[in-house]
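Task 17 of the worksheet. Students: predict the tertiary structure of the chain below and write it out as structure tokens. Keep your answer in the requested format; marks are given for formatting as well as content.
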Amino acid sequence: KLSREFLRRCNSKSIEDITSEKITDAVINTKNKDEWQYARQFFKFCLETKRVPFEFGALIPKTRQVKKLPSTYSVEEITKVEFTVDRTTTIGKRDYALLLLSTRLGLRSGDIVDLKLSEIDFEQKKIKRIQLKTGNEIELALVADVENALLDYIKNARPKSHSKTVFLRHYAPFKPITTAVLRSGVVKKYILQAEITITNRKHGPHAFRASLATAMVNDTTKLQQ
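Model answer:
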């Protein structure tokens, strides 16, 4: 679509009628510069298939899309969010464990809700699983706060179920929770309860993952994929 819009600006009846002057005029009259990237690719294809005699794409400027910085929260804000959880209730115990897997270990939302009981090694104090997004194996240290939160939930709050997944709904049928529940029913819920300003900031597990990474960089911790 973007390539087509650029070609319309060339005012040519066919590809064969395009000239360098028409390319230049189209570039000058382009408001959405995203068109340039796709037009360059299109003209490269035209040259390879011998539809045009020259690399007209070389006349089109290259642009780099400015990537937005990820949303982050300070250590103080995250601590406030965690403190908001009522850990005397069964749902609170579950939600607290969910939050810590995001804030302390930086797990992605998909990996959190898909976490299996067999992937938690309380004796060796580590979590080991294959990441859903990358397919790579990851091994994380089971730090004390996360360990205690998981044990409290599994022993005292998790519904009786044969499910291999750690986190379950607290109402029958006791199925694994979804990423939507984690994002809106847990993370967003407690951020708002903690009265943290979310204006112009994302407010899901990914923001906590980015916050952890930022804190690690500031603390000169070496990062791994």
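Marker's comment: Confidence is low (pLDDT under 50) at residues 220-225. The longest helix spans residues 34-48.
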